[in-house]
Amino acid sequence: MALPETMKAVVFDGLYKISVQDRPVPKIRNDRDIIIKVHAAGLCGSELHIYRGHQPSDTGFIMGHEFTGTVVQVGSAVKTIKIGDKVVAPFTASCGNCFYCNSGYSARCVESQLFGCETLDGGQAEYVRIPMADGTAVKAPDTISDQALLLMADIFPTGFYGVKSAMELCPSQNVQDATMVVIGCGPVGLCAILAASHYKPRHLFAIDSVESRLEQARKLGAEPLNFESDKAGLEARIKEVTNGRGADMVVEVVGQSPALRTAFDIVRPFGAISSIGVHNKEIPWTGDDAYTKNIRLQMGRCPVRSVFPEALKLLEQKQDLIGFMFERVMPLSQAPEGYTLFEQRKTQKVVFAP
């Protein structure tokens, strides 16, 4: 299939600066590559780490690691994907064959590449190249809507993984007797709340400082607690329902040190902190603090390709509850406005339609 020479793409230009530019349409570089025409591309909170300068980056690359589309070109070594297939790609490309991929840790594939950074252009564009397609791309299942499919690139599996990890850290704890807390009610946090509610913990709390997000968390089944207006009150409330112990499981989604410190403060001894936020270098407690409290800690990137089947089964049951994620669908040409709205927390989620 003959493709155009150029396309529109969202390019990172520096701190708080992105632009829509004409860029060459990507080509097959390796016989394991595919090229897709993008249907939808999400704007994720992780992009804000680059946009705000929290994650220092070079400029000039195409943004975006959440996207779906139709395959238009296929490398000669690709076996499981064909032209015309509708696919979603997890936010990290993976080979599917190494020790980590075979162990369920695809996020740490020895050939892993992250979409939307200096080394691999992202999907906020009309076309995108997917390397290692057999180990990365997933054919669109017919059990979820096109909108829900976009969430499977990152935020729903990541929220699910955060909850699953917290439960696995406390194997002797009956979840239905547990108190679970999700810190951060952006899109990933709300997906975590949606996943947590499925397992019916006795108490499910949501912590944030934005009232509109807390209201959405309440609608999904969590008791909202405002970090900014009543930090002492939220800690007291959690202790009230746990006989003074603290939360059994905390899922930290924000990726900032104050949120991680809050997780430490509210978790009980021998409780679990599952941190899926993208953090900087600082850990806001000492080794002595952690030793004294016997915390169980899991941090890091979600292995989306590995947890995809299990997360998909849950999303199939919950997809009717996620319509609020798609209230702001914008053409690619309005990407600068979309970034501003999302950065200022004036919208729950932004989706670009190239």
From TrEMBL:
Q: Does this UniProt record's set of keywords contain Chloroplast?
A: no
GO terms (molecular function) for this protein are: oxidoreductase activity; zinc ion binding
Task: List UniProt keywords, sorted A-Z.
Answer: Metal-binding, Oxidoreductase, Zinc
- Domain Enoyl reductase (ER) stretches: 14-352
Tell me its cofactors.
Zn(2+)
User: Mind telling me which PANTHER family this protein's record contains?
Assistant: DEHYDROGENASE, ZINC-CONTAINING, PUTATIVE (AFU_ORTHOLOGUE AFUA_2G02810)-RELATED, ZINC-TYPE ALCOHOL DEHYDROGENASE-LIKE
Q: Give the family, as the similarity comment puts it.
A: Belongs to the zinc-containing alcohol dehydrogenase family.
What is the protein named?
Answer: Enoyl reductase (ER) domain-containing protein
Record the organism: Fusarium piperis
